[in-house]
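[Automated response] Your request has been received and processed.

Submitted sequence:
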Amino acid sequence: MLPSGPWVYETSVTINSYGYEAGFVETSADDPVYPYPRMDFEKVLPPAPRSFKGIVLENGYVSVTILPELGGRIYSWIDKATGRQLLYQNPVLKPTVWGYRGWWLATGGIEWSFPVEEHGLNEWRPWSYTISGGSVTVSDVESRTGMEVGATISLDGSHAYITLQPWAKNLSDRSQPYQLWLNGMVTLGGNRVSGETQLIIPSSQVTIHSTQDGGVPGPGGVMSWPVYGGRDLSWYRNWGGYIGFFAPSNGFVGLYDHGSQQGMVRAHEPGWPAGTKLFGPSSLSPAYWTDDNSSYLELWSGATGSFWSTGSLEPGATVGWAERWYPVSHLGGFNYANRLAALRLSELEGAVEAAVAVSGYIEGQLTLFVGGQRAAQWPVQLYPGQAFLGSWPRQPGIEGAAGMRLTGSDGSTIAQTGQLP
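Generated structure:
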């Protein structure tokens, strides 16, 4: 399929919604969430259909739908190669007891959380939006601080990745403390998280934020990753209760459902954004946030290293970053990724397997090294939505660890992993 687009157009999205506004409780100036409302859950009305304006941004590879009236969130992200919806879409807007205000709408999609930790303060209300070419920018002036928060969501015509650029600007005349995060609620299809989902994190340890799994450390505790206490916790099926944890921002993270062979990559500059967090409800009852037993995993990015760290923004100053999300499929998982490609290098019984998926068209070579020597080389010509799989039977006398390098037609390195010469 040749690259095409991007296109932008308006649509409408209907979601069953509880009457949560009927439960709003006004706050006073001495309340830390003022002027935002708290919630009287007993006054919330039963659900009824509600229509929201949607802004659709798509190209030949993916389609993204943004809901300005629900905090400017990305509500839908579809991989056109597989037809799968990659984000959680709660079929009902139901206020939960979580969040800084003491309530939060687990709407789904990708939300922008500001100026406090957890789910922020203003993610539930209408935001402004502008359209420019293949980009949509959503923004809001936050009521407690007067700072402006926003995000620019972009597509081009030749890549499957969406570029996400969250930002905040201090419009006030004094220094302001802040937290700025994005929260992606991911399912990889079917609005359910499979036990065959793997969390791919390039780190040897993570820090627990919260948990109901008695086999891992408590809040603030450091845990080896992926194996701790004899369990490989990169596989969601091995969790014994909910876990939220912070991980180093080492350039990429990802999720891969081995049952459906669908995955996603989040790629960014190493170390920036500063924070990466993952959370899985695991054994928590979905009745907390929905009415149909659907589930999700949360993938967070933040301007601070954790929810325990707060930044400071001077008058007139702006903070922000860029990261790219793209789908992969039929790859068998991956060990390394950047914005252009995801690589899997696996030791099988008697063989080494190399696999590649890309975010844009690539023509070049995939080279496998064993013990620092070239063992195999394959020409590749790949579009997004495809995967290349190569296998090399281990030869007698050729020992050592494996590595792989993907190069373009000009010989430049696109991505590499493992032991290389």
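Summary generated for your ticket: The chain has two domains: 7-328, 333-418. The two ends are 35 Å apart (CA to CA).
If you did not submit this request, please reply to this message.
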